[in-house]
Amino acid sequence: MHKSTKSCDIPMSVKKRVWERDDHRCVICGTTYTAAPNAHYIPRSHLGLGIEQNIVTLCLACHCDFDNSAKRQYYKVLIKRYLMMKYPDWDESKLTYKKFDALQTYHELSDKGKADVDNYIQLTFKEEHKHE
Ligand SMILES: [Zn+2]
Hints:
About 50% of the residues lie in helices and about 5% in strands. The chain has about 130 residues and is mainly alpha-helical.
């Protein structure tokens, strides 16, 4: 599997934390019916990461509307507000997989004879999220 695709998957540990954080409810309408902690604020297709700050619990109906309807922009504002409330240092620019950063560091690592992009990505990921 391609690395960027994998980074956008939602690990089980993240789903569990989001599920608890959102109190098992859809963050849009508040229902527990069909709610699941698997909605990306920034979609996978835009390299949105599978991290708590980018994942919310939505019910099936709201998830559908969020993915495929004119309500998307409105829902995005609601979800953004919600995430900012949960994470005071929430930063939309940190929610996406940065191919460019990884490549740049790849070159730096090559100079030291330690080219390992995957390793770097994992390290920076841990570094960015160690305060959670
Ligand atoms: Zn809902």
